[in-house]
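Ticket #4471: structure export looks truncated?
Reporter: QA, pipeline team
Priority: medium

Steps to reproduce: submit the single chain below to the structure queue and open the exported record.
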Amino acid sequence: LLATPDLATYVGYLAILLCGHAAVPLGPDNPTAFNVAVATGAGLDATLAAGPLGEDLATRGIAVLDPGDAMAGPPGPAADRGAPDRVAYILFTSGSTGRPKGVPVSHRNLSAYLDVVVPRYELGPGARLSHTFALTFDPSVFDILGALTTGSCLVVPRRRELLNPVGYASSRRLTHWYSVPSLISLARRLGSLSAGSLPTLRRSMFIGEPLPRDLARAWSAAAPAAPLHNIYGPTELTISCAEHVASAAELSAGDGSDNDTVPIGLVHPGLHWVLLDDDGAGEGEGELCVRGPQRFGGYLDPADNADRFVRRRGDGLEPVAAGEAVGPDDWYRTGDRVRVTSDGLLHIGRVDRQVKVSGYRIELGHVEAALRATAGVADVGVVAVPDLGGQLTLVAFVTGEAGAIERLPRSMRAVVPPYLVPGRFVSRAALPLNGSGKTDYVALRASAKRLLHG
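Actual output as written to the record:
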């Protein structure tokens, strides 16, 4: 489904699900080559896409339906209600090898998620929901199905409206706001996030990035009638699996945490979690591992399952070996390091090189692989550092032929989505090495901070 923000897309999304098929959103801003790779990886039988992308997919033997014609056609077959383990949608996330990983989410996973969040957020007639996420980003599934299965109204913004979040929320009389925390930063920079400026909001939800306490305070003051939910969850655990509702008193007082972010709180009812440290099962701090009805059944390519699941063996936890089937009692390794606090779990970092930029999950190795595949590039090191506004920015340090660096922005935009294109490219004669002879990313991050902060 080519995910353009128009009526045919939403009708198409619902039609795919109601007919018992799996929806695979394709980003309209992604390069055609990237969308073709996703289509091939998903094994698409058909696509709803007009224009050049549809023509390109048709040459590869994939049936192409024009969205307008599909809307006017006869109704499809009724859904098979007896197949809860049928795939509802497949989303592709950044992969450390440079190849996107397909995440199939079943109707059973999705139903378990909606059973938790629909009553929690008090959705129903009269509720007006924001829609700030691209359809390739899984919180958009909450927007669509949370609204349309409860009689709520999904308020789809025009692209320019997202450049003014407060104006969008107030002029459209939104009752429920759901976005990445970066949009709070944008609203504050615009000077529109004043106290009481969001009087119609009844719920404020943020996901996709750590939520700094100062941003949460600013938004809470603008929307005093709306409880503020800090929400956490990887795509593999069906949109969200934990959250914390932060009170105004808590935000004002702070909690003394060393990263001054709002906790991610308590894991959803029905899910089970453990912490994994270097010695096995952790206690107060470690990598969060989760299992339960929201946990997906494994990646589209089983090779991607290696080291992403752990299971109980004896008194400890051990990785599920490559080639072993993923079982219902296995825990998914989120890669997120958390600490147990009085308010639930606090996110304190990653155990790998994955970062989130404006909510998008990015494996820095994916960006490096795309850069190394570019003619004239010898080696590359990519880091993510905050800019002067506090937003993470990708900086790529590149070695290779003279003049190659000037071609990189255009070359990258031709093969990867916009969020994977570094904001800065820096030419170097050689990359710094650490004592083990490997790329010294600590030194590169220090260099990147000097570049961005002057």
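Status: closed, not a bug. The export was complete when the record was re-opened. Leaving a note from the reviewer for reference: DSSP finds 13 helices and 23 strands in the chain.
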